[in-house]
Amino acid sequence: MRAQFILSETWTNLRRNLAMLLSLMLVTFISFLFIGASVLTQAQITKAKGDWYDKVEVVVWLCPDGTSQSANCASGKSPSAQEITDLQKTIRDELNDVVAKIDYVSKQDFYNNTFTKQYPNGEFQGRTLTADDMQDSLWLKLKDPTKYQVVAEVLSGKEGVEDVTDQRQIFDPVFAVLNRATAVTAVLAGVMVLVAILLTGTTIRMSAASRRTETEIMRYVGASNWTIRLPFILEGAIASLLGSVLSCLMLSVIVRVFITGWLAQSVTWIPYVNQLTVLMISPFLILGAILLSVIASTISLRRYLRA
């Protein structure tokens, strides 16, 4: 009987305060859309890092024939086959705990398999380059990609090594931009959540004020505080539930249209978030919205509907 009464009161509140509840639902929708976008952006960064960092390699560029700015290449000659073998042995001996695999790439192989794919016919900055313009190199696969600095410290001063580069340098600026975008989105989400909390408290308090006479009568006949307050709390929770569900649906549409439907078709070498990612974060967004609404409503009503 009490449950039926509470549900009846909740339905009455919803009908009487439809405009306010719609505004509360829209604010919740926008707030949790920003939160969801922030979470998806960070999930995208994590997904890309996990995929790219597993593939990146440290490239040890060996001295070329001719002039070089590196002090290790003062002889003006590229390392001999024996010197390259000795360098590989040094890597295995001194960096066995860091380096998982060593691949030697001759300048001819680099020209055929890498350079000409990026620059057809060998044309680069108005010049046509050949294999003789390339450098021999060692490509190191690391057991832990974050240990690049250890490799650089050991090899940078070795005779015959011109430079040591980490392919992560290509990706880190991209991740930096995405991290800033995540931070901006998170700040906006925080502001909108604060607005949603304040609006929820105000809406529920105004709803209670419009039914002050009824709540006083209920108190006189012995109704408990929770029996009086629960319909108002449910009112805010329902509005927040609808708003958060809408935000999850919008995130799903954004991912389907702009990520999997467009971006993934245009740029195929990046792993992207998908509908499963949205599905995984949706319960947390919905529960978070309901919890914030319940807390805001409870605090507001405790101050307003004092026994």
Based on CA inertia axes, which overall geometry fits? elongated
Secondary structure: helix percent: 55-70%
Radius of gyration: 31 Å
Overall number of structural domains: 2
- Mean pLDDT over the residues: 82
How widely separated are the two ends? 23 Å
Class by alpha and beta content: alpha+beta
Q: Summarize the biggest pleated sheet.
A: 4 strands, antiparallel
- Strand proportion, as a percent range, falls in 5-15%
Q: How are the strands of the biggest sheet laid out side by side?
A: 2-5-1-6
Poorly predicted ranges (pLDDT <50, ≥5 residues)?
none
What is the overall number of helices?
Answer: 9
State the total count of DSSP E strands.
Answer: 6
Q: SSE order, as H and E?
A: HHEHEHEEEHEHHHH
Keywords: Cell cycle, Cell division, Cell membrane, Membrane, Transmembrane, Transmembrane helix
Transmembrane segments: 21-40, 183-204, 237-259, 279-301
Organism: Bifidobacterium felsineum
Domain FtsX extracellular: 56-164
Q: How does this model look, in words?
A:
This protein is of the alpha+beta class and about 300 residues long. It has 2 domains: about 1-50 and about 170-305, no CATH class; about 55-145, Alpha-Beta Plaits. It contains 9 helices and 6 strands, in the order ααβαβαβββαβαααα. It has helices at about 1-15, 20-55, 80-95, 105-120, 150-155, 170-210, 210-220, 225-265, 275-305; strands at about 60, 100-105, 125, 125-130, 135-140, 160-165. The strands form 2 sheets. It has a 4-stranded antiparallel beta sheet with strand order 2-5-1-6. It has a two-stranded antiparallel sheet with strand order 3-4.
